[in-house]
């Protein structure tokens, strides 16, 4: 509806130059000592900027920028609580509290993957296989979210079909991850991180300047609360600079429970148990390196997450002021004083002849909130006279209500074309740095944690390269299929939230218990992981309305309802993490209390304290199942 | 404040900045506070990791 979509030669050249630079840095990484492990072997230290930006680039993807930025465009700045958690939990707690114990435990036990860390800690091959299988099965969902986010933007920026953009994105990803780029090279990640930093700073400054400054921009958005579409207002939306209505027992509180439990808590807490991020701590040289990474990591996340949330929300003010003009007939006056109304959109089908615009899905008229700028007498297609109003609307009107298209639509409509190409590169960078870790994790989960543990009976050997490569290709294929098949409301953010929540409920208690407690037992950890995963999947399939209705099982059981708790307000909006994580934690504590604690020798190996011990037994030893 | 009437959203907006400043402050204070020694087990781990990466 807006913008300047097309692919020019300059676009192609700039993108190719960028990809060449990425490939060159990756090649350098393989020739020299550029990976985190290389630094460690050489006894040297990566610069803290390199370490932190590399971590941040793995953390942040198109899912955060396009997916969650778009959700902020729809639901508003309440999403900024996720920024608070992303920095407070994802950087401060992760680096300061969990980073060093993870690094030390991983090195002592010789663990190289997250499932291996859990398996070695609890002396259980079953736990390693469990964690590996969960990652292998569900990580493609998160990868699909990242891929969809990038493809949606490419489609809007270059004026191509989503399917074509997805194919191109998948080919670029395959070219990057399959031949050898799957092992993160810190300098490549860092270059990608700096492209992202530049893009976000420019985007934030441009948006505030275009709307007259920080306070003015916020004030304008605050004053637009009467433009919230009725379907969102019915869920508790009170404006883009206000929290959704909070309470329990009525559907008017559903939005609060969706935003806070699924998007803020699910992702904000779930980051602690992300396998590809936990492994990063093991590649760090020392506690000092972690400490030095904290400020850069915090600043990076503030820019990468805070900017899209603020800009996504403010895009409503930009479109209401500068967006393309729309035409229609007033259905309901919102405010005569400010010239705001709900308008049935119309299109001109013949000179001076207008007909209502119909919704492609419902077939009914498209009614949108509008800031009316002009009124003219006109006639419809049947010759009936009416007052045609012209004006602008909120961003969701221009994307057909699709949150995933909000950031792309804003960039193409509001910002200079050259920035669109830079932003695409930033998204490509965000996607590649995240996906390289995702697919590496999928590969090691299949090769090291599943194949070696099950097929090889746990005997220590070189990782099966063929299984890893096949798993990566299978994961890529699965992610592309999911991206191609499922295009629903804010699917990018939802897929991300599902995976993060599932990881939190399944892994977090066992992971943190394993780092800090000597009393947590193997049975406790396995029970906790089983309960966390089972409850999460049950809740997604049968209770959480949006996901349950898409899966379809609950409709067969109930004869058409979208949730087992469809008649009880708010429960169908609550995220599984609210139920599954506490249940997983309680299970860990209770089962551990009634089962035999780990042996003293193993505990000394895990927690040698200040006395220190030599290297742990070779990985694979000491397991009893 | 800042053109935003809802105190919870203002708190989130400023809280994000406060978290970042906390991180900056922590990094400054702890810059050289922890030891920076690489142990034998660290090196052994890194050697294995590098071999696995090369195989891949």
Can you put this structure into words, describing what you see?
The complex is a heterodimer of chains A (625) and B (56). With 625 residues, chain A is α+β, with helices and mostly antiparallel strands. Chain A has one domain: Sodium/glucose cotransporter (Up-down Bundle). Chain A has 24 helices and five strands. In chain A, strands 1, 2, 3, 4 and 5 form a five-stranded mixed β-sheet that branches. The longest helix of chain A is centred in the last third of the chain and has 39 residues, at 417-455. Chain A is globular, with a radius of gyration of 26 Å. The N and C termini of chain A lie far apart (60 Å). The model of chain A is unreliable at 610-625 (pLDDT under 50). Chain B has 56 residues and is an all-alpha fold. Chain B has one domain (7-55). In chain B, 70% of the residues lie in helices and 0% in strands. Chain B is built from two helices and no strands. Chain B has helices spanning 7-29, 40-55. The chains are: A alpha+beta (625), B mainly alpha (56). At the A-B interface, α2, α5, α10 and α14 of A face α1 and α2 of B.
Number of helical regions of chain B: 2
Which two chains have the most extensive interface, and how many residues on each?
A-B, 69 and 45 residues
Query: What is the terminal-to-terminal distance of chain A?
Result: 60 Å
What fold name stands as the CATH topology of chain A? Answer: Sodium/glucose cotransporter
CATH class of chain A, anyone?
A: Mainly Alpha
Beta-strand content of chain B: under 5%
Give descriptors for this structure:
heterodimer; A: 625 residues; alpha+beta; Sodium/glucose cotransporter; five-stranded mixed beta sheet; 8% strand; B: 56 residues; mainly alpha; 2 helices
């Amino acid at each position: 509806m807006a913008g300047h979509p097309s692919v020019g030669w300059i676009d192609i050249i700039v993108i190719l130059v960028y990809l060449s630079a990425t490939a060159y840095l990756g090649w350098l990484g393989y020739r020299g000592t550029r990976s985190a492990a290389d630094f460690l072997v050489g006894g040297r230290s990566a610069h803290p900027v390199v370490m932190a930006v590399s971590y941040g680039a793995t953390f942040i993807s198109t899912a955060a920028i396009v997916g969650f930025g778009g959700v902020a465009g729809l639901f508003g700045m309440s999403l900024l609580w996720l920024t608070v958690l992303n920095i407070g939990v994802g950087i401060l707690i992760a680096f300061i509290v969990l980073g060093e114990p993870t690094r030390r435990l991983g090195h002592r036990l010789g663990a190289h993957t997250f499932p291996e860390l859990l398996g070695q800690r609890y002396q259980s091959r079953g736990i390693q296989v469990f964690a590996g299988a969960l990652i292998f099965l569900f990580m493609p969902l998160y990868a699909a979210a990242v891929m969809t986010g990038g493809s949606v933007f490419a489609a809007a920026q270059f004026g191509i079909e989503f399917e074509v953009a997805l194919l191109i994105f998948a080919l670029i990803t395959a070219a990057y991850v399959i031949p050898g780029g799957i092992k993160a090279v810190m300098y490549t990640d860092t270059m990608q991180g700096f492209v992202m930093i530049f893009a976000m700073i420019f985007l934030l400054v441009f948006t505030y300047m275009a709307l007259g400054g920080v306070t003015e921009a916020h004030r304008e958005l605050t004053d637009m609360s009467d433009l919230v579409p009725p379907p969102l207002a019915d869920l508790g939306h009170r404006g883009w600079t206000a929290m959704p209505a909070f309470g329990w027992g009525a559907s008017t509180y559903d939005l609060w429970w969706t935003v806070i439990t699924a998007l803020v808590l699910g992702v904000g807490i779930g980051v602690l148990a992300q396998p590809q991020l936990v492994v990063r701590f093991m590649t760090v040289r020392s506690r000092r390196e972690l400490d030095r990474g904290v400020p850069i990591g915090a600043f990076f996340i503030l820019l990468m997450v805070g900017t899209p949330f603020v800009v996504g929300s403010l895009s409503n003010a930009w479109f209401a002021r500068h967006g393309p003009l729309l035409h229609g007939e007033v259905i309901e006056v919102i405010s005569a004083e400010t010239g705001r109304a709900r308008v049935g959109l119309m299109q001109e089908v013949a000179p001076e002849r207008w007909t209502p615009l119909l919704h492609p899905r419902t077939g009914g008229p498209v009614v949108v909130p509008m800031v009316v700028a002009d009124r003219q007498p006109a006639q419809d297609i049947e010759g009936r006279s009416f007052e045609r109003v012209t004006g602008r609307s909120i961003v969701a009107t221009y994307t057909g209500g699709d949150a995933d298209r909000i950031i792309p639509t804003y960039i193409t409509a509001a910002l200079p074309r050259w920035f669109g190409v830079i932003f695409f590169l930033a998204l490509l960078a965000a996607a590649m740095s995240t996906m390289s870790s995702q697919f590496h994790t999928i590969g090691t989960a299949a090769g090291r944690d599943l194949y070696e543990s099950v097929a090889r009976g746990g005997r220590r050997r070189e990782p099966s390269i063929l299984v890893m490569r096949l798993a990566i290709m299978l994961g890529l294929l699965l992610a592309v299929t999911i991206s191609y098949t499922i295009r629903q409301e804010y699917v990018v953010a939802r897929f991300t939230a599902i995976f993060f929540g599932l990881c939190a409920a399944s892994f977090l208690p066992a992971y943190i218990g394993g780092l800090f407690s000597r009393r947590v037992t193997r049975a406790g950890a396995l029970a906790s992981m089983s309960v966390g995963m089972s409850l999460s999947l049950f809740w997604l399939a049968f209770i959480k309305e949006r996901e349950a209705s898409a899966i379809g099982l609950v409709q067969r059981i109930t004869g058409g309802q979208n949730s087992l708790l469809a008649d009880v307000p708010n429960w169908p909006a609550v995220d599984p993490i609210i139920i599954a994580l506490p249940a997983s934690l309680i299970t860990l504590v209770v089962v551990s209390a009634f089962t035999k604690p780990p042996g003293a020798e193993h505990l000394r190996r895990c927690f040698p304290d200040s006395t220190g011990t030599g290297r742990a037994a070779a990985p694979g030893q000491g397991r009893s199942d | 404040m800042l053109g935003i009437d809802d105190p919870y959203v203002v708190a989130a907006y400023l809280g994000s900045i406060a978290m970042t400043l906390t991180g900056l402050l922590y990094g400054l204070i702890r810059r050289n506070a922890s030891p920076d020694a690489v142990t034998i087990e660290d090196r052994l781990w890194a050697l294995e990791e590098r071999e696995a990466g090369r195989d891949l």
